[in-house]
Write a structure and sequence with these properties.
Layout lengths: L1 H20 L11 H15 L3 H14 L6 H14 L3 H14 L6 H14 L3 H14 L3 H17 L3 H14 L3 H17 L3 H10 L6 H15 L2 H14 L6 H17 L2 E8 L5 H22 L4 E8 L3 H15 L3 E3 L4 H5 L2 H7 L3 E3 L14 E3 L4 H15 L4 E7 L2 H16 L3 E8 L7 H12 L4 E11 L2 E7 L4 E3 L4 H5 L1 H7 L6 E4 L6 H7 L7 E4 L8 H14 L5 H18 L5 H10 L9 E4 L5 E3 L2 E6 L2 E4 L2
Parallel strand pairs: 1-2, 1-3, 3-4, 4-5, 6-7, 6-10, 10-11, 11-12
Antiparallel strand pairs: 8-9, 12-15, 13-14, 15-16
């Protein structure tokens, strides 16, 4: 018992000494007479309005008594004195001391608020926004909340964060009791919607408030924009969505009339071209890119020819093939199109062969990639980059232009990788190349060591060279030997981050000095970032390159950016070319589906932005894909 008592007093003594030597922040000895007098003098000076001397005295106090229990009070009034003298940076620094070190102080709430307001006055919008957001969540006083929301809204205006600003105004609307003030806020929201929001922001607002205010007004503004742009697809689709969600909205009859007018106007065109796209939400981005490409081609045609006799009619397809066929048949009978672009999905396109033959209606798909889908009907055409075209093109370039002869294939075991591997192997062999090894991997894996070691073993039995043991390189406790590959290139038709890791892992096993070859799966930031320096010099094929030096491509990219404020994709380019080819057929005098088909087959020397120059007799687009190389971390076209 005596030992425990002695131990207890020793512990107490140690802690006492520790706190005397190292007092915690905000904790100190009780104020002594000099300390009390010094602070009292400084505060009296402040109260007397002599802020310059108050600043001197308070600064002196903090320096002399750094561990004072009154330090928070001194920091606060030092901030107040600086604020009175419009020394905003110094004031903020003093208030920030309380915010950072005296969270339990009675001065903390006021100091926190002052930091927020001064950050606002200094134009430090990000910090002010964060602080006012926190204040809005802690404040219950409606008047104070109203003031905070005003500040948050002004910050959103300064940052041009209009959707966020509308959210703030809606929060303010929630606390207002006066109907006139409520209407004022509603009017401000409506003004932002009509004057500040573009299509993307309007869509975001609709997603956030799909069944009420302000989503309804966002719908109406989006309808107005599409109407002004003559974008009949998005106009018609947006009106239909609005009518489904807001069937009792005022002036609903005007929208119904607009919807009917779209259909009637389309029927009045001398020549109608159909566009068939999926209604699936997950395909919406690709659908928009296709629609943009089609619209751009028609708008440019109308602009240069002053010919408005050609019109577009759009048809959205559901996910029931049987119902789609009946709907498409009814749609063909109603509008009598002379040609159609789409469908976009391979299965939907393949199912059209009967209707295409029955109505002698040419269909051009700008996206479907299944093998042989144009063989089902003489009226089916395709302008899309297939896996087979990619594999043949990269094999041809590697052997005939790059002088490469021996290859390793390293592919994911999915349909994409399997087809590319099979066609590349056949084409490379046909051209006199040799396939040294073929390795496959799961798309989910990120460790490729087993496959790499196996291909090295295979190569060593043919052309590879193994040297002495290496120093400092171990992998899973195995000593490595120097290895020199006996092949020239690795065909790597993967995609995504995980596939991008393969070159670096190959480099670890001394698979260096070889060229990496790929397909369009390489053209993604995830893949290129994962590959990094190990992909340098790599070559791959794609169906479109928006930085191409080709004048045709450059003009297309500039027009697309001007109209849509975004970058074109391969789907935009392929649909643009599909529409251009149909317009070319019509300019050549085609007036029936049969004539359009024959004219499409007769076009030669066409300079497509997606590389197409003509159609083969079986409806496949014959194109010259873009060969791209990674040079200094950037993509460059080399063909």
């Amino acid at each position: 018992m005596r030992k425990l008592t002695v131990l207890f007093f020793k512990i107490c003594f140690c802690f006492g000494v520790f706190y005397l030597v190292f007092p915690p922040m905000g904790w100190g000895a009780p104020p002594v007479a000099d300390e009390t007098l010094a602070l009292g003098t400084a505060l009296n000076t402040f109260q007397g309005g002599d802020f310059d001397n108050a600043i001197i005295q308070l600064t002196d106090f903090i320096g002399k008594f750094p561990d004072s229990l009154k330090r928070d009070q001194a920091c606060f009034f030092l901030g107040e004195a600086h604020f009175k003298r419009s020394h905003l940076l110094e004031a903020k620094e003093s208030y920030q001391q309380i915010v950072d070190h005296f969270q339990g102080s009675s001065y903390y709430p006021q100091a926190f608020s002052q930091v927020a307001y001064i950050s606002f006055d200094l134009g430090q919008w990000d910090q002010a926004q964060s602080l006012f957001k926190e204040l809005s969540e802690e404040t219950t006083d409606p008047q104070k909340q109203n003031e905070i929301y005003d500040k948050l809204y002004e910050i959103s205006v300064r940052k041009e964060e209009w959707v966020k600003g509308i959210g703030i105004l809606l929060e303010k609307l929630r606390i207002l009791a006066n109907s006139a003030e409520q209407q004022g806020v509603r009017n401000k929201i409506l003004s932002v919607i009509q004057e500040k929001l573009g299509k993307k922001d309007l869509e975001i607002l609709i997603d956030q408030y799909p069944r009420g205010f302000p989503g309804d007004d966002a719908y109406l503004q989006l309808i107005s924009i599409y109407d002004a742009e003559k974008d009949t697809f998005h106009l018609e689709r947006t009106i239909k969505h609005f009518l489904e969600i807001f069937p009792k909205r005022e002036n609903i009859d005007l929208l119904k009339q607009k919807l009917n007018a779209i259909s009637e106007k389309a029927k009045k065109h001398k020549t109608i071209i159909g566009v068939l796209v999926p209604s699936l939400k997950k395909a919406e981005e690709i659908t928009d890119q296709v629609i943009n490409g089609v619209n751009l081609a028609l708008w440019e045609y109308q602009k240069t020819t002053n010919d408005d006799s050609i019109g577009l009619v759009f048809k959205e397809l559901g996910n029931q093939p049987g119902k789609n066929a009946a709907d498409i048949e009814a749609w063909i009978k109603e509008y009598s199109p002379k040609a159609a672009i789409g469908p976009l999905l391979s299965k939907e396109f393949e199912s059209l062969s009967g209707l295409a033959d029955t109505f002698s209606l040419p269909f051009i798909t700008p996206t479907a990639t299944h093998s042989g889908i144009t063989m089902r009907s003489k009226f089916l055409f395709r302008n899309a980059l297939t896996n087979a075209v990619q594999a043949k093109e990269i094999a041809d370039y590697a052997i005939t232009q790059g002088g490469l002869k021996r290859f390793v294939i390293f592919y994911p075991n999915n349909s994409y990788g399997e087809e590319l591997s099979r066609v590349f192997s056949a084409e490379a062999t046909r051209l006199g190349g040799e396939i040294i090894a073929v390795e496959t991997y799961s798309p989910d894996t990120s460790d490729f060591s087993l496959q790499i070691k196996h291909l090295i073993k295979t190569d060593l039995s043919k052309y590879g060279i193994e040297g002495d043991k290496t120093d400092g390189k171990e992998f899973k406790n195995q000593i490595k030997r120097e290895y020199t590959p006996g092949f020239d290139a690795v065909f790597l038709p993967g995609e995504g981050t995980k596939a991008g890791l393969i070159p670096s892992q190959m480099a670890f096993f001394d698979v260096t000095g070889v060229t990496f070859l790929g397909a369009n799966g390489w053209n993604s930031s995830d893949f290129l970032k994962a590959g990094g320096k190990y992909l340098e010099g790599g070559i791959f094929v794609d169906g479109f390159f928006n930085e191409s030096p080709s004048p045709v491509v450059s003009r297309f990219v500039q027009k697309y950016q001007k109209y849509f404020q975004s970058e074109p994709t391969i789907f935009s380019a392929q649909s643009y070319d599909a529409m251009e080819l149909i317009l070319q057929a019509l300019k050549n005098g085609a007036t029936t589906g049969n004539q359009v088909r024959n004219s499409l087959l007769g076009i030669t020397g066409f300079e497509g932005v997606s590389g197409i120059n003509r159609f083969s007799p079986d409806g496949e687009g014959e194109k010259k894909p873009f060969i791209l190389q990674i040079k200094n971390g950037r993509l460059q076209q080399i063909n």
